[in-house]
Amino acid sequence: MATLPETAALETPAVPQRQPSLTWNIDKQTNRIRGEADGLAAAHQAVEIILNCERFRWQIYRPYSGVQWDGLIGEDPGYVSAQLLRRVTEALMMDDRVTGVTDFSPAVSGNTLTASMTVRTVYGDTRVQVQVELG
Q1: CA–CA separation, 89 vs 128, rounded Å?
Q2: Which SS3 state, helix, strand or coil, does residue 63 take?
Q3: Are 119 and 125 in contact (CB under 8 A)?
Q4: With b meaning 16 or more CB within 10 Å and e meaning fewer, what string describes 15-25?
Q5: In the chain, fewer beta carbons within 10 Å around the N or the C end?
Q6: How far from 64 is each of 14, 50, 57, CA to CA, in Å?
Q7: CA distances from 8 to 12, 13, 16 (A)
Q8: What is the pLDDT tens value at each position of the chain, 135 positions in all?
């Protein structure tokens, strides 16, 4: 007597569908949750959360969530710039709404490297900025 089905033939094949990206909207002005966000607003909020979360630090997030900032602080600006692009792209591509990172432009001012970039999502493009202390 078999415990598993011999065949699993479906009459119609399963077709994957994109789920809504509906999430709580974080109001940065008041630091409160106000309503809900969907589409580009939800994707932009997810990008900001990913970029502001240290990878492997918080157990509430999955191990592949966030950016690994450790090892960049205090390093040479050229090294930081190259690693930053790779690490940020790697982290953001874990979200299935993100399709790529373009227009990466780093600038050093004093002991701070500031990088601006465009994050392409399935809903449209959003512009973000990150900073790394070099010294």
Answers
A1: 12
A2: coil
A3: yes
A4: eeeeeebebee
A5: N
A6: 28, 10, 11
A7: 12, 11, 18
A8: 667 667 666 677 778 777 777 889 999 899 899 999 999 999 999 999 899 888 877 777 777 788 888 888 778 888 888 899 999 999 999 888 999 999 999 998 888 889 999 999 999 999 999 988 887
Q: Which of 135, 130, 125, 89 is nearest to 107 (CA)?
A: 130
Tokens linked to 59: 């157990």
R_g over Cα of the chain: 20
CA neighbours closer than 13 Å in the CB half-sphere of residue 85: 14
**What would the two tokens of residue 72 be?**
């960049």
Question: Strand 98-109 and strand 112-121: pairing?
Answer: antiparallel
